[in-house]
Amino acid sequence: MSITSKLPTVGLTIFTEMTDMANACGAINLSQGFPEFDPHPGLKDLVSKYIRDGHNQYAPMQGVLALRERIAEKARRLYGVDYDPATEITVTSGATEALFAAVAAVVHPGDEVIIVEPAYDCYIPMITLNGGRPVYTPLTYPSYRIDWDAFLRCITPRTRLAILNFPHNPSGAVLDARDLDALAEILRNTGVLILSDEVYEHIIFDGLTHHSLAGHPELRERSFIVSSFAKTYHTTGWKVGYCLAPRRLSAEFQKVHQYLVFSVNTPIQHAYAEFMQDQSHWAGLASFYQSRRDYFLNRLAGSRFRPLPCHGTFFQMLDYSAISDEPDVSFARRLTAGHGVAAIPPSVFYHDGEDNRVLRFCFAKKAATLAAAAERLCRIDPGA
Ligand code: PMP
Ligand code: GLN
After folding, report:
1. Which domains does the chain have, with CATH numbers?
2. Is 13 in the pocket of ligand 2 (CB under 6 A)?
3. N or C, which end of the chain is more exposed by having fewer CB within 10 Å?
């Protein structure tokens, strides 16, 4: 029996490919982004407690109310904005499900969706599975800032949605207040919606603050804001995230969510709700990761890799053009197999394979891991 693939050009994700290769080669894995830190013991205890106390059946479709209330409080405190826990917040199976549900809720066959490149890997398949057409606008290399004139040129009568992701994976770029105003001005008098992937909202460095689209009154009205507990609590394996959106957008979002997963696992939602009462956990995350970034960069000081600015996320881009001019995919493979350090080649995040001879390294790792990786990277000479 033959089937016609809906994703004929898609294989395993680059994250799976590089992690498999790192494991096969015994390389230090700085490719796929996941923390090498265990969740807080108090959070793990709360999950056990809620399982033992019998919170083991379906949660409400929108999410456990206590968790939606904590999320609403956080949005109010951080971004000065009110989202109604009853109608404007949905707990999802990670940010990934939220992204899919938002795209599926609003993108119709033939609609255009603006993507900012380099783009996190799931956006394009989600658009094409829903019959949409991705339209690409680049971040300007090497600052990775949005070129708003280029963005404006992408808008047509068919544009339905724009997907943004700041702090940005893979570059670590962030938005400032002027960016939000520029976006608001471009979209004023259009029907274009926004899907803002803000999973790294708490990981922003050097005294900068995260400018959530939620906090911009005009943008809020047309935006799905997606975040995840994965990065915030070192729990990528638990797959819980959420989506904030105005009532009428949330209503459409929940129509998809209820048939995609119906609801998200109950005890973990209760545990997060209780744990979130102590805001110090997310409040301390930026300095926690900034010190890891700085540690990694200090250790790399004697290497031939040139760091690009990293303002947020737990990824550091390193330019390797002083070592080799080979394409990033083959350099990443050689680095893994030959030098024992795995990283992500960002050309896979561009539809045309743009290749700036940089690699993305995850620094959400213990000091010993970063030191060992940096030592290997420092040993690499040109032509090696
Ligand atoms: N968006 C971005 C930009 C990510 O980096 C990730 C994964 N780290 C996700 C979405 C997916 O998040 P989750 O694991 O909560 O599904
Ligand atoms: N978000 C993680 C990264 O950017 C990977 C998640 C995944 O493996 N799908 O590395």
Report:
1. 14-32+284-378 (3.90.1150.10), 57-280 (3.40.640.10)
2. yes
3. N
